[in-house]
Design goal:
Chain lengths: 598, 235
């Protein structure tokens, strides 16, 4: 219990008189008292006191300091050294300084034997190190934008502190601020002698200072002198940066605009860059109209075309056409192929022609049920063949036009003609017919041009004949055949559209008729349009055209090799086209026609 | 009277003889299996560095413990006690010089022995401190952890110093920390009054902090002497 009480008593002393060591300032309202004790390097220390309000004690010597080390409870000793230069200071040098030892000091007035003040401490607890020296800075780097920079601040420990020996372990604290600002930025404690400061602004002046303290103690020393840190801004760098940004964004914006433009104007651009291949056209005739229009309109249209003027056909000596010989069966006997053909047909083969009554819209049928105009037919009589080269008959083709290598078409045998019970009276005629369509009932629809005559001949005969276009369209576009697979003797000059001649070949094989051919209707006003879809493919192919192989000196088109029979009309089935023509199948392009001309 | 004293001393030595033996066993390394193997040796300089690191850490943690305790239990007017450095720290068997000049004059042997003695003198009080702190109702866990940590580290510090003594001074030491047992008797008493026990513990912490600082300084001085004798022994 005794020991416990002694503990308590020793502490109570301190309770009564709190002692502040860090403030060397004096409190004038009090009596004589100690104002503070400090050690700079943990080797010596000083104490200061003040007389306070007792002015009569200000003379030197009136107040004296006594100290006692608590190690071995030694007696009180007087201050070893009263500093001469500084008033009221007691200096304890190395000899009298003991670390880790409690000191108690007393301020006494010896004359009056009064102890005015007392304080106890240990030296390591009153150490305030000197400020570091040699503070300087170096530039670490500047940011890309030129707006920020980093510095490395260096210093040296205070010379009074024996850091090298390890007598004192110091930690440092760096503070910085923008110049003339009131707020200091504090960095963490640093045990080394350098510190990096990041994120400073260029073009701003900074003040940097440093102070130190013993590690694990609380008493900081004084601050060192401040240094100024300043990095000038580099103007060029900053100016280029936004320019580059603007450029990049501008380019991106333009690219986006272009893409949008392209996507919005896709169709038009497609037309500009990838123009559709122009379909063969007849000047002034709308393909759509031909497809879907009424017969009257078509008739008017076609008649207005120059190229279909009957004159055009005057110079077609080589044109062969079917010659209808209604009234003269003897004539038929003279004819060669047609007779054979008809004979074959009479035999009940599938060559019987049938004419469909034209109920379908747009289906032109030259083969009206009624007997064709006798006048027209008469023109087909062989008697007219004497007209000369204008319309040589098929039957005479071999003789009158020997140079023509027109392939004789015996295609009638191959014509996909169905046997029809109802055979018109003129079925015995000598003629070729091209099957252009098949009725749903299985009937065969012949193209009227052939039936009446070869279209060219008809033109010759009747100028007023309206030429009707028989269009075959195969899905992509309609090709209009202005002519005629007509002869090579036809000068290519007539009509701008003369360049196109279609020669349907392989397509005949039950497929689409790629070709078109002129159809001249006599009185039938119904336009005859070939269907787009091919008829039943069961029928053997019939080719309405012959592929022009070459042109001879007389401007004759050499069609298929002359080995074949003379053609009645320049139509030949595909079968008679053994050799692939060198010409492009189906078309005689203008340039090719140009080659044909002399 | 003399006889009594001699008998007392002799009895004391005899009773402590087993303890001496236990401490006399030279340090050997034990691997995971428990068998004694040859320790991998490190250089003396490196060992001294590690010992210094230990001492630094112990000192820093002791200061933190002191601050924690002070913030939690000590009323503000009594904070000045800290500066006093502990009035009634337990005395050492032999005096340790306090001034720098004196310390510079003592030999390496004395330095090491002083450190060893300091370390050993604090082993028991720290254990006591752990138990007494755990009795407080609202002692922060950090404080308890730190105290425990410090007492563990003190053990390894002692081992390091012993090795250093063996290496540097070429002497085997038969030491015992039981010499200091009698000094602990004041601490063993439990005071019924809360304030007193608090103040006592506070004083204990302050004293320990001071001695930890001492240990660190001595060891650093020793290191300086090892590396550069001339500049350390000067003035």
């Amino acid at each position: 219990q005794y020991i416990v009480h002694s503990w308590f008593l020793s502490f109570s002393e301190v309770v009564l008189e709190p002692f502040q060591f860090s403030l060397p300032g004096s409190d004038p309202s009090r009596g004589p008292h100690f104002t503070g004790c400090r050690s700079r390097e943990q080797e010596t220390f000083r104490c200061w006191w003040s007389a306070g309000i007792f002015q009569n004690l200000t003379e030197p010597g009136a107040l004296r300091v006594f100290y006692q080390t608590k190690n071995f409870l030694s007696e009180w000793q007087e201050c070893p050294d009263y500093t001469r230069t500084v008033k009221n200071e007691c200096y304890f040098n190395k000899t009298f300084t003991q670390i880790w030892t409690s000191y108690c000091i007393q301020l006494r007035s010896v004359r009056e034997n009064i102890t005015y003040d007392e304080a106890c401490f240990t030296v390591e607890n009153i150490v305030h190190p000197d400020p570091p020296i040699g503070l300087n800075w170096t530039l670490l780097n500047v940011s890309r934008s030129g707006l920020h920079f980093d510095v490395l601040v260096r210093w040296a420990p205070p010379p009074s502190a024996d850091v090298q020996m390890g007598w004192m372990s110091l930690v440092y604290q760096v503070q910085y601020r923008v110049r003339n600002n009131s707020h200091w930025e504090m960095l963490d404690l640093e045990s080394g002698t350098q510190q990096s400061i990041y994120g400073l602004h260029t073009d701003k002046e900074y003040e940097v200072r440093v102070r130190c303290k013993m590690s694990a103690f609380d008493n900081f020393g004084e601050f060192s002198d401040s240094i100024i840190v300043h990095v000038a801004q580099i103007p060029s760098k900053e100016s280029t940066f936004p320019t580059t940004l603007v450029l990049i964004f501008g380019v991106i914006g333009v690219v986006i605009l272009l893409v949008l433009l392209i996507f919005s104007q896709q169709q038009r651009l497609m037309v500009i860059f990838l123009p559709p291949i122009p379909a063969p056209k007849i000047k002034g005739i709308d393909p759509e109209l031909l497809k879907n229009g009424k017969l009257d309109q078509l008739n008017s249209l076609l008649s207005s075309q120059d190229m279909y003027k009957p004159d055009f056909y005057h110079e077609d000596p080589w044109v062969e056409f079917i010659q209808l010989d209604l009234d003269d069966p003897a004539e038929k006997n003279e004819s060669s192929d047609t007779q054979h053909l008809l004979g074959v047909s009479r035999s009940g083969s599938s060559h019987v022609l049938n004419f469909k009554s034209d109920d379908d819209s747009g289906r032109a049928s030259c083969y009206d049920p009624e007997i064709p105009n006798p006048e027209d037919l008469a023109s087909l009589l062989p008697g007219h063949s004497g007209r000369g080269d204008n319309h040589p008959l098929v039957s005479r083709s071999s003789s009158s036009i020997p140079d023509l290598g027109v392939q004789q078409t015996s295609e009638v045998e191959e014509t996909p003609i169905q046997t029809q019970p109802a055979v018109p009276s003129w079925v015995n005629m000598d003629f070729y017919a091209q099957v252009s369509d098949f009725t749903p009932a299985g009937g065969v629809v012949l193209s009227p041009g052939q039936l009446n005559s070869c279209p060219e001949k008809k033109k010759e005969e009747e100028n007023e004949k309206k030429i009707q276009f028989q269009l075959v369209s195969d899905g992509a576009y309609t090709s209009e055949n202005t002519a005629r697979q007509l002869s090579a003797s036809v000068p290519p000059s007539p009509g701008p559209e003369q360049g196109y001649q279609t020669f349907p070949t392989q397509a005949v094989e039950g497929n689409l008729w790629n070709g078109e051919y002129l159809v001249s209707t006599s009185d039938s006003q119904t336009p005859y349009l070939l269907p787009e879809a091919p008829p039943a493919p069961i029928l053997p192919p019939v080719s309405d055209y012959t592929v022009v192989q070459e042109v001879d000196a007389q401007h004759s088109l050499l069609l298929n090799p002359p080995s074949s029979q003379p053609a009645i009309c320049p139509h030949s089935p595909n079968k008679h086209l053994p050799a692939m023509p060198t010409m492009p199948m189906g078309y005689l392009t203008p340039d090719l026609l140009g080659n044909l001309t002399p | 009277m003399n006889r009594l004293k001699v008998l007392q001393a002799w009895l004391w030595c005899v009773s402590l003889w087993p303890c001496w033996l236990s401490h006399a066993v030279p340090l050997d390394c034990k691997d995971e299996t428990g068998s004694l193997t040859q320790c991998t040796s490190i250089s003396q300089e490196k060992l001294l560095d590690r010992v210094i690191q230990h001492a630094e850490l112990i000192y820093r943690v002791s200061e933190e413990s002191c601050t924690l305790f002070e913030d939690m239990f000590i009323p503000y007017p009594l904070h000045a006690l800290r500066n006093q450095g502990g009035n009634l720290c337990h005395t050492k068997p032999f005096p340790i010089p306090g001034s720098k000049s004196e310390i510079q004059q003592i030999s390496d042997k004395w330095l090491l022995h002083s450190v060893l003695m300091l370390v050993q003198s604090w082993m028991e009080p720290l254990i006591y401190l752990q138990t007494t702190l755990s009795r407080y109702d609202d002692a922060p866990d950090a404080l308890l952890n730190k105290t425990k940590w410090v007492s563990d580290k003190l053990l390894s510090l002692e081992q390091g110093v012993l090795v250093l003594i063996r290496k540097m001074l070429d002497e085997g030491i038969l030491t015992s920390s039981s010499i200091f047992e009698h000094t602990l008797t004041p601490y063993n008493e439990q005071s019924p009054e809360v304030l007193e026990s608090i103040l006592r513990d506070y004083n204990l912490l302050i004293c320990f902090k001071k001695d930890a600082h001492k240990m660190e300084t001595f060891l650093k001085l020793l290191k300086c002497r090892q590396s550069n004798k001339l500049s350390c022994l000067s003035y």
